[in-house]
UniProtKB/TrEMBL annotation:
This is MIF4G domain-containing protein. It comes from Vicia faba. It comes from the Eukaryota. Residues 24-59, 90-171 are annotated as: Disordered. Residues 180-352 form the MIF4G domain. GO terms for biological process: nuclear-transcribed mRNA catabolic process, nonsense-mediated decay. The lineage of its organism: Eukaryota, Viridiplantae, Streptophyta, Embryophyta, Tracheophyta. Residues 134-171 have a biased composition (Basic and acidic residues).
Length: 356
């Protein structure tokens, strides 16, 4: 009896009941088996998937598709580690150690040698002084010479600072022009080789401000250029191996845009909604966007499954539905979501057929 009750709670049995009611027939007796529910933990899903036959469909259709979504260029092999920001902590540690080294205690033998050397210098300086010249005049001359030297040093420091500021401004202007030229090439990267080359070139302009500019340009992809989303997502996935803030910033912007659009409850900006959800789906296939984010977006659409939410849900499934359904970690959950999504369609079809 317990197994029967659990089976009755399944979405498939609910569909069967609706169909039986529409046809004025008795529902069939569902077969009892050990798997009464579709909900299991991730570890059980992986173990069950590994125990299945080899006839299970692979995640990717062909090797080229798998390589596109899983094999990225190694940035550390093409770009120096300094440009990737991975050697700064080591440099700082070395500078701290060099500052701590002069405070080491010298042995007593070295101390005695230093004392004798200093006393010898003092005696020689006293012998060098001319006999007819007083110590006060010598002190005045030395102070004047020191003040002159200090003035000269200050002027040199000011000149060096000005030169350094000018050089920094020139570098910034050069980097700005180079970054602008690089960002203008983004819409033309419609192949794996082009986007990988552009990713490596961006690493030579790597800085926190430049990363933010890149994320803004990636986020503002034209809503009619959906073919670019896969290549932009590959660039983000490649950069996230060394620059974690690129993926986190983009995901935050996409999630905020999705929540804004779905809470607005209007039937405008359908192209923007589709661009947003397809971008999230592509990032999911690169394992940049977590599967939980995709399922939360899909559930938000199913909670109000009407008008544009239907289009958004269908585009999400078209982008990454097969990937999530074939992945062992998310297969069962994706199957449950599909049954929830198909239930209203089946009911409407039955009612329409009954009316005819």
């Amino acid at each position: 009896m317990s197994q029967g009750l659990e089976v009755n709670k399944s979405p498939s049995f609910k569909v069967t009941l609706k169909l039986a009611e529409a046809l004025d027939m008795q529902p069939p007796v569902m077969p009892e088996d050990g798997h009464t529910t579709r909900l299991t933990s991730g570890e059980e899903t992986v173990s069950s998937a590994s125990g299945k036959d080899s006839s299970v469909e692979p995640v990717w259709d062909d090797e080229d598709t798998r390589a596109f979504y899983e094999c990225f260029p190694d940035l550390r092999a093409f770009v120096p580690a300094v440009l990737l920001g991975e050697t700064e902590p080591k440099v700082n540690e070395q500078s701290v150690k060099s500052q701590d080294q002069p405070t080491e205690i010298l042995p007593e033998s070295d101390k005695s040698q230093l004392i004798t050397f200093e006393s010898g210098e003092g005696s020689t300086e006293s012998n060098v002084l001319p006999e007819g010249e007083s110590t006060e005049r010598v002190d005045d001359k030395e102070e004047k010479e020191k003040s002159k030297d200090l003035d000269i040093d200050k002027e040199k420091e000011k000149e060096n600072e000005k030169k350094g500021e000018n050089d920094k401004e020139k570098l910034r202007s050069v980097e700005g022009t180079n970054l602008d030229a690089l960002l203008q090439r983004l819409p033309g990267c419609v192949s794996r080789d082009l986007i990988d080359q552009l990713t490596v070139e961006f690493c030579y302009l790597n800085s926190k401000s430049n990363r933010k500019k890149l994320v803004r340009d990636l986020f503002s992809v034209p809503r009619t250029s959906l073919e670019l989303l896969a290549y932009y997502s590959r660039m983000v996935a490649t950069l996230s191996t060394c620059m974690k803030d690129v993926s986190s910033l983009l995901l935050q912007m996409l999630e905020e845009e999705f929540n804004f659009l779905i809470n607005k409850k209007d039937q405008m900006n359908i192209e923007t909604k589709i661009r947003n959800i397809r971008f999230i789906g592509e990032l999911c296939k690169f394992k940049v966007a977590p599967a939980g984010l995709v399922f939360s977006c899909l559930k938000a659409c199913l909670d109000d499954f009407s008008h544009h939410n239907i289009d958004v849900a269908c585009n999400l499934l078209e982008t990454c539905g097969r990937f999530l359904y074939r992945s062992p970690e998310t297969s069962i959950r994706m199957g449950n979501m599909l049954e929830m999504m198909l239930l209203p369609f089946i009911v409407q079809f039955i009612l329409h057929a009954k009316l005819l």
